[in-house]
Amino acid sequence: MEHGVILVGGGGHALVVAGSLRRAGAAVVGFLDDDPAAVLAHEPAAVERLGALSQIERIAAAGADMILALGDLTLRRRLIDAHPHSLRRGLVVIDGAAMVAVVSQLGAGVYVGAKAVVQVRASVGEHAIINTGAIIEHECRIGANVHVAPGAVLGGRVSIGPDTLIGLGSRVLPGVRIGSRCVVGAGAVVTRDVPDGACVVGVPARVI
Predict the structure, then answer these.
(1) Does the pLDDT at position 46 exceed 90?
(2) pLDDT above 70 for 54
(3) How far is the C-alpha of 106 from the C-alpha of 98, rounded, in Å?
(4) Taken in order 139, 89, 93, 161, is the CA torsion positive or negative?
(5) Mean of the pLDDT values across residues 64-86?
């Protein structure tokens, strides 16, 4: 990280990732975003907008360290599919206040937020977000581009398919399998398997 880090995104999630990087002593040297007025350019420690999201290839060719710092899973997936080689070596960012077990696996571009926990023998796919205070228990399998929102808890041996959102403060019981492109609503308690593409809410969670 001697040349600094460039964030792909300049909104609220980028603010969080930038904070983690700075606490680790890394320089955030710029960001890409389609919005010239993105919030990262106007924070007290303002960061320069280097161009639109379409500039990923140019930035990657220059050898810069990058991480996806967008919260929108659909947009993240579109960028991952459009720039697979440029984002494949995405930087892994672990907040200094997180706990990640040595015997766990994190894919390229993963972000682990403050006070999040990734326990032993868990694996987290490329470009996933384990957000503030989320808990990933032992032997969980988290797919690519999953967002485990702040305060969510996954019991042991939970499996989550790619491009799925696990909502704020939700709970997934041990051994449950959740498919790809799913949404688990805020505060839901998931007690049984969820099929691909489903949205579940409530206690216990039900498909809507």
Answers:
(1) no
(2) yes
(3) 13
(4) negative
(5) 93
Report the alpha-carbon distance of residue 117 to residue 157 in Å, rounded.
Answer: 15
Starting at the earlier edge strand, list the strands of the sheet with 141-142. Answer: 105-106, 123-124, 141-142, 159-160, 177-178
Rounded CA gap, 93 and 90, in Å?
A: 9
What's the confidence (pLDDT) of residue 1?
36
Confidence label for 101 from pLDDT (cuts 50, 70 and 90): very high
CA distance 70 to 13: 6
- Tokens at 132, concatenated: 């503030």
Range among 32-46, 56-70, 187-201 with highest mean pLDDT value: 187-201
Alpha helix segments (H runs only) across 31-189: 56-61, 73-82, 84-88
Q: Which residues, at least 6 apart from 25, have a Cβ–Cβ distance to it below 8 Å?
A: none
CA–CA gap between residue 161 and residue 56 (Å, rounded) = 26
- Give the span between the Cα atoms of 144 and 154, in whole angstroms: 16
Location of structure tokens 């969510």:
152
192 has a pLDDT exceeding 80: yes
Its pTM stands at 0.94
| Helical ranges in 83-180 per DSSP H | 84-88
Whether 6 contacts 29, CB under 8 Å: yes
Average pLDDT over residues 148-168: 98
Please provide the distance, in angstroms rounded to a whole number, between the alpha carbons at the two ends of the chain: 44
